[in-house]
Fold:
Amino acid sequence: MTSTYKVAIVGSGPAGLSAAARAAQLGMYHILLEKTDHLSDTIFRYQKGKHVMATPSQLVLRSDFDFDAGKREKILQTWNDQAASQNVQVRYRSEVTAISGSPGAFTLKLADGESINAEAVILAIGTQGNPNLMRCPGGDLPHVEYQLDDPTAILDEHITVIGAGDAGIENALGLAADPEQRNVVTIVNRSSDFSRAKDANVKALTSAAEEGRITILTETSTNRIEPEHIVLDTRDGELRIPCNRIIARMGSAPPRGFVESCGIEFSSKDREAFPILSPVFESTAPGIFVIGALAGYPLIKHCMNQGYDVVEFINGNTNLKPADEPILETKFSKLPGNRSVDEWLDVLRTEIEILRDLTPLQMREFTLDSDVSFVRKGDVIFDRGAPGSSLFNVASGGVHVQVNPSDPSIVVPIGTGAMFGEVGLISGRKRGATVVAAEDSILMEIPRNSALKLIATVPAVKRAVTRVSIERQLLQLFKAGLSPSDIAEVVESAETISVRAGESIIAEGDESYDIYVIRVGSMVVERTIAGKTVFISYLPAGSYVGEMALIEGGRRTASVRAAVKSEVIKLNGDAFRSLLDRNSALLERLKIDMATRKDVNAHIETMKSTFSDVADMYSSVASFLVENGIGEATDVLLIDERLCVGCDNCEKACADSHDGLSRLDREAGKTYAHLHVPTSCRHCEHPHCMADCPPNAIHRGMDGEVFIDDTCIGCGNCQRGCPYGVIRMDKVPPKKPPLLNWLLFGSGPGPGEPNAKWAKKHGNPEAPKKAIKCDMCAGIEGGPSCVRACPTGAAIRISPEQFLSVSHMQKGS
Amino acid sequence: MAFLARNKAAKRAGPSSHVSFLKYADYRWLKIASGFSALTILIYALIDVEPRHSGNSWYGYTLGTIGAILILWLALLGWRKRSIKPGQWTLKSWVSAHVWLGLSLIIVVTLHGAFQFGWNVHTLAYVLMMIVILSGIYGICAYTILPKQLSSNRGDMTQVEMLDNLRSIDRQLHDATQPLSTELANIIGASLNDDPFSGSILARLKNQYPSCPTQYAFETVGAASRSKASDNADDIVRAAQLLSRKVTALANIRRHLQLKAQLEIWLYFHVPVTFALIAALTAHVVSVFFYW
Structure:
């Protein structure tokens, strides 16, 4: 091909399609290159009938293509129709293997040997379209597939599933679910165990194998593939089995190698890093633009807007304001000073220390997520003990941190440019001090997820946050009138160490005397008494340990190990000792703390000799709870099975308080000594569910509850991320008739979650599934319904510090 | 200013107390109920009513009114349990009051009737009330003793998991039956066709299933597996092992069903008889005023 396109767009997902549509509208000579034979492969591969959401809802869509929440099929149909009617030039089956050249003259090499010339290139290839392929002989045969749309459509076949991750296991189970389909399903796993898959999936798979519905082959790899058979290398030799279809689910890799080969640099070596981009989406290779998921924007609306914008930029439109401009305008509208959006962004970036290294594009993104507000002198920003995990920055003015709860006049000032609230961000614990505006100020509040992303992507931010947080944590922990200069030497010697769950930081009998501050997670203190390990106490994040050996000398008297994955600050013993020598008030304070701890130790030992059973019970119950993840919980439902009559009123009350869906499963879960941990949210310090929520719909609320807001797109990431299985994906059932109508006339399904049949009959079959989890009945007067509705007092909600304390044991629980 | 608004939000209620409904608030309702009962007895003993104590003395009317109101209020527990509305109430406190005030009815109503019984609607109401109270006392005992046993029996299994386990054994048993003789296959087939929920309510309460086909199959196939005479001895041993697992699983689930039945059976008297009581009570009150 000799003619030169004005722009070549690689990838026909939402971003690429929207870019091509804009180019077509502007009359630019363009070509859209798609690897497969259909548009938008990622959405094409969604399961049949999947409901696709349009988030973030406040963002205005700016594209020549339409997009609204709806079924996968409808969205694909719309785009196919519009691509045809708007004259978008698509070249299918055109995988780009290399891009070379310079602005105005790029050459794109295709897999079929052809090449295409273009003045500018837009990369919109996403991160999904790159599954790991079967590399054995016969791997290119047509019956080798990398996805499974509808397992129920496959009948009477011999199927081999390669790869025993979650995707592979779910496919295998789906194919073998109904014996009427008469499928013979084999799943092949390279290693001997299923370490990559979720526990529930592994259990379901092994039980299916026990029942003879699925054959599992472990330590097996594929030798070659034949039209009707597959040949496998097993531990005991070669095995040839009939096979009509192969489903390979061996993961996918981001196409980083390809992107880098085009001369595009990434922001870091991190596996999840994105390419470095200018405000007009231009990469470090001039003339090549990157948009969409590959640029770090996985949401469809973002992608489509970027497609529009980038073509406008390439076409020379320099006045185009981003589609998020109105949102930022509203954000800044309440601030004094009457500046434009760009001016405000510039002020924030230059004034706030940790934002200085950000690109204008990153700046926009973080500001969109954040809250910028003007506060008057004396306004309380947050109270001691309030839940909160966002990071605050002072853009102008300053605040006072009230470090002493009994005397608010003792304050530590924080000036323009500095941050505060970082302890809550890092530990996930409640706020440690009240913060009040010292003068009229402008503050920027960055929510937890964005702040963590910032720390992860900009190394300078990470360093600053670590240093400041260690210093502040020590000042707050030891108080005693210390100033930053007093502890400078200790901070200098400090070392942040991550500790795996179960790993010890201090072993009983050691001769070390360093001090540890628990920064993230929690620890348990144990001693060996008469050959048995006895649980002594539980240390939440924000406490310190190890002072006894330092002050009194001698060996360590107890072991300290991590209850969950944790992070500790190790303070050098010698540096700390010299600090104590200089500061007698601090020494006194530590001695008081130490005396309390010694009392506890002595108490447990007396208990051991006199009421051995009680102490044993306390110790073993505490260990059981820690093993079941209570160590990372902030508020958890427990059931005392000595009182539980199994009426399930807790579940019914839960359903009746929240749209008719119960967020807890009373019966499921582990039990020890009649203490039952039901399947219900623990509101973890660092919620696993929050880690990967595309619309950022999971937050920590006012009472410390972790909740999902209305922007949930039903993707199920949180459900897969939760190690405790407390999130369910379900449709909200229709409203029930009032209770009295049921009591008197029997209308409706009665209290609790309506049965599936009733819900289906009266509900909306088109309603999307959403993630449902406990929100601790936030905003409901009287507190959690599960506890209020328990007739016998079996259901209790606890926080671990309170429950795992000796005083609780003394009360006889 | 999101964070300023947040500070103004209502503070959360404290952690839930960990005591049973009987001990709620340091036996508050036991104290109130026993104090009230003692007071009624004292007044009954001290006052002089002519010609004698009866339901239609002023004291009789007073106690009767209190008793009737109490009965109606106690019956409202059924509504309270199901009406999950926001508010500072706990069902535990209601149950605590229900139990202790309900027991005090024995004294209040007996004194109201002044030990006068006969074959009439008045005594009928009294008897029905006593049935409700007695079934309630059984309920208190069951709720105190049985939960611990229920918990120990089920361990970490849910009822659904117990049934799934049973079904999974059944599927394997079905396959294991194929190579066996028709005679043994029929015996095991009877076990496969047996529904764990079958059997009378009495059998469930007593946990006695004398003609259990699984038990029979377990014994017969077990004996056959020990005789070793057959040429497919391995198949018989496998079936016997599966039957042994099934017997254990079945015993487990039957014990679960027994305990659940014992925990629930009394409500089938307590609640319907309450409605009968309210009907009789209405007749009692109307007739008293009719014959005034």
Summary: The two ends of chain B are 70 Å apart (CA to CA). Chain B has two domains: 22-82+89-146+266-290, 159-264. Chain B touches chain A through 52 residues (CB under 8 Å).
